[in-house]
């Protein structure tokens, strides 16, 4: 697979795909100076709309807790 470039692509289209389909990042980054590793970063992140996350079973407990809190305190919304 090779990357392609679509000149018609917009930021709005990218956000729409991220919210609808989502993206999972698994990143290992090591910053070195003069071949000496100074900083290491291990990052795992999922970016998607809440409906997509819930569909895949992510953040379900958080969503249920927030909804229960909102139900118990109508002033919160």
Automatic annotation (TrEMBL):
Annotated Gene Ontology MF terms? structural molecule activity
- A Pfam family this chain is assigned to: Gas_vesicle
Q: Which UniProt keywords apply?
A: Gas vesicle
Enumerate the InterPro entries for this protein: Gas-vesicle_GvpA-like, GvpA
Reading the lineage from the top rank, the first entry is Bacteria
Q: Which GO terms describe its cellular component?
A: gas vesicle; vesicle membrane
The subcellular location is: Gas vesicle
Q: Which family does it belong to?
A: Belongs to the gas vesicle GvpA family.
Q: What is this protein called?
A: Gas vesicle protein GvpM
Provide the species name: Microbacterium mangrovi
């Amino acid at each position: 697979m090779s990357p392609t470039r679509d000149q018609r692509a917009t930021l709005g289209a990218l956000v729409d795909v991220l919210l609808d389909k989502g993206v999972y990042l698994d990143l290992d980054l090591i910053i070195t100076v003069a071949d000496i590793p100074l900083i290491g970063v291990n990052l795992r992140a999922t970016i998607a709309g809440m409906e997509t996350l819930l569909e895949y079973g992510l953040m379900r407990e958080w969503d249920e807790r927030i909804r229960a809190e909102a139900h118990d305190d109508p002033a919160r919304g």
